[in-house]
Write a structure and sequence with these properties.
With 434 residues, the chain is α+β, with helices and mostly antiparallel strands. The chain folds into two domains: 8-162, Creatinase/prolidase N-terminal domain (Creatine Amidinohydrolase, Chain A, domain 1, 3-Layer(aba) Sandwich), CATH 3.40.350.10; 167-429, Alpha-Beta Complex (Creatine Amidinohydrolase), CATH 3.90.230. The chain has helices at 8-21, 50-56, 85-91, 96-103, 115-122, 137-146, 155-162, 167-189, 197-210, 272-290, 299-315, 323-327, 423-429; strands at residues 26-31, 37-39, 42-43, 64-68, 75-80, 108-111, 128-131, 151-152, 214-215, 220-223, 244-248, 251-253, 256-257, 261-265, 372-375, 378-381, 397-400, 403-406, 413-414. The chain has a six-stranded mixed sheet, sandwiched between helices. Strands 9-12-13 form a three-stranded antiparallel sheet. A three-stranded antiparallel sheet has the order 10-11-14, with helices on one face. Helix 10 packs antiparallel against helix 11. The longest helix has 23 residues, at 167-189. The protein starts with 7 loop residues before the first helix and ends in a 5-residue tail after the last helix. The structure holds manganese (II) ion. Manganese (II) ion is lined by residues 259, 345, 374, 376, 402. The site of manganese (II) ion has 5 residues, from loops.
């Protein structure tokens, strides 16, 4: 298997847990992601489907995992690329069905080339069929052609399982959090006036690669006004001496993500207005982390952050209205002009992980031990926006502070704790490696 702290028996336990949740005599089909083309003959780095990783730790494309509970007996089968010397000369060694069976947590294996025939021959014995649709249109097609009854969605059960992390998953997420924290500290230490956003990106990605990890999402490195663009990823401008840089970058380990944001002045000294905004966002973040308690409704951390921000925006003279008007009846008041996203999301195999919290109008989950969430309030005062007016001294400032939080009975555990976030710590680190 790939390097993993997750044991073979844990994967089998997950498969057993899944088949105990679905209807009797069911077949569950989990297709893997398709490779995606970057340009002629070149592909983007391949990333396996998170459900596939979760159930079998299988990372090769062109594969399907089937799990059934016919007569209450678990049978998990991986359909994988067959060995092919000519192909392997060009693209690397293929594990093949035999390798999959001997070293991966499945009961049987087969060639993906036999998938259609094999499935056709089995379908009649099952009463129910579950398929993760929309991952591989070819697999969807095969099933739709050969199954007349309703196709059920297994994700409701898988998401419930994935939203509570096991000890071994938490271990992987701790490693990812540490690597991301180190990368941010390094990037702070090489920061200087006029540094290119891409240089900070290179430092961070270099550290990820050095630690045998990859980005869990495209890094955001926004200096000055670019710090106010929530999903800025071109990272192509130089950062002036008086400006802040907002860096949102995290790595993944064995598929498990970290998600970390820090904001610092490239000069190593916050200006007074930057300091005021930073202190306010930090206070909101600490308050939201404190709200990450077992049994708390999802909204609590957002409410905690929002209350601090609404009050602070009035105190700084940015909002000229009552606290009630600033906060709004449904956390939809005027403060949303400057904090327009949610306070956090679930984190796991996906950066925006399954299990709720990003469902628009839906309430999101109640926090339980073993959940991992992000907490990431921010304030953004884009100088180019003509729909807002703020005191000139705050114009062009964007600040977000984001940590990854494990929910435990003993209270919130900050997995990204080793990444400094107080003004004093940051000012002492920025530029220290120059
Ligand atoms: Mn995030």
């Amino acid at each position: 298997m790939e390097d993993s702290t997750v044991s073979m028996s844990e994967y089998f336990q997950r498969q057993d847990s899944l088949i105990s949740r679905v209807l009797p005599n069911s077949l569950i089909i989990i297709p893997n992601n398709l490779p995606s083309i970057r340009s002629n003959d070149t592909k983007y780095p391949y990333r396996a489907n998170s459900y596939m990783i979760y159930m079998s730790n299988w990372f090769e494309p062109n594969s399907v995992l089937c799990i059934s509970n016919y007569n209450n007996v678990r049978e998990s089968t991986l359909y994988v690329n067959p060995r092919d010397t000519q192909k392997e000369i060009w693209e690397g060694r293929i594990i093949g069905p035999e390798g999959a069976l001997s070293d991966w947590p499945v009961d049987s294996s087969n060639s993906i080339l036999d998938f259609e025939n094999s499935i056709k021959n089995q379908l009649s014995k099952y009463s129910n069929l579950y398929l993760i649709k929309g991952v591989d249109p070819q697999i969807d097609n095969v099933i739709q052609k050969n199954w007349d009854d309703e196709i059920l969605d297994p994700c409701v059960f898988l998401d419930e399982m994935r939203s509570i992390k096991s000890d071994s998953e938490i271990e992987l997420m701790k490693i990812a959090s540490s690597i991301s924290s180190e990368a941010h500290i390094k990037a702070m230490s090489i920061s200087r006036p006029d540094i290119g956003e891409w240089e900070i990106q290179a430092s961070i990605e270099g550290h990820f690669t050095k630690c045998k990890s990859t980005n869990s999402y495209n890094p955001i490195v926004g200096g000055g006004d670019n710090s106010t663009i929530l999903h800025y990823t071109s990272n192509s401008k130089r950062i002036e001496g008086t400006e802040l840089v907002l860096v949102d970058a995290g790595c993944e380990i064995n598929g498990y993500a970290s998600d970390l944001t820090r904001t610092w002045p490239v000069s190593g000294r916050f200006t007074q207005p930057q300091r005021e905004i930073y202190e306010l966002v930090l206070e909101a973040e600490l308050s939201a982390i404190e709200a990450c308690q077992v049994g708390s409704p999802w909204i609590n951390m957002h409410k905690a952050a929002s209350e601090v921000l609404a009050k602070g925006l009035i105190e700084l003279g940015i909002l000229d209205c009552s606290y009630e008007e600033a906060l709004g009846k449904n956390l939809d008041g005027k403060y949303r002009n400057f904090f327009m996203h949610g306070t956090g999301h679930m984190l796991g195999l996906d950066v925006h992980d399954v299990g709720g919290g990003r469902q628009g109008g839906k309430p999101g989950p109640v926090l339980r031990p073993g959940m991992v969430v992000t907490v990431e309030p921010g304030l953004y005062f884009a100088s180019w926006r003509d729909d807002i007016s703020v005191p000139k001294k705050y114009s062009g400032i964007g600040v977000r502070i984001e940590d990854d939080i494990l929910i435990t009975e003993e209270g919130p555990v900050v997995l990204t704790e080793m990444c400094p976030k107080t003004i004093d710590e940051i000012e002492s680190i920025v530029g220290s490696a120059l």
